[in-house]
Design brief:
mainly alpha, 5 helices, DUF1493
């Protein structure tokens, strides 16, 4: 069974590399959000993260709705031409949720 500390260590080693411009890592705790909050992932990175997570922790992806956490965003030019339709807000996906699922 994976502990929160082990899960955070895996996440930080794989996905919390120092940023290009500041050469430092973002602050990460077990309550850090991947799809909401201050340091959110783009959907492409979120997809890579989730695919590796499913494989490493042998979690079945069948019940995971990717677009719940990273909804499709309107292309900026289409967004200017719409009649006020807003994009869906992403649901929070936190590291704690992933760690708990890995333990299940």
């Amino acid at each position: 069974m994976v502990s929160n500390e082990e899960f955070l260590q895996w996440y930080c080693e794989r996905f919390n590399t120092p940023s290009v411009f500041f050469n430092k890592r973002w602050p990460v705790t077990i309550d850090t959000g991947l799809s909401t909050g201050k340091y959110v992932w783009a959907s492409e990175t979120g997809g890579d993260t989730m695919n590796e997570y499913f494989e490493k922790y042998d979690v079945a992806p069948s019940g995971f709705d990717f677009y719940r956490y990273w909804p499709v965003e309107t292309f900026i030019l289409f967004g200017l031409c719409t009649c006020g339709n807003d994009d869906d807000e992403p649901q929070p996906l936190k590291l704690k949720m992933l760690a708990e699922s890995a333990r299940a």
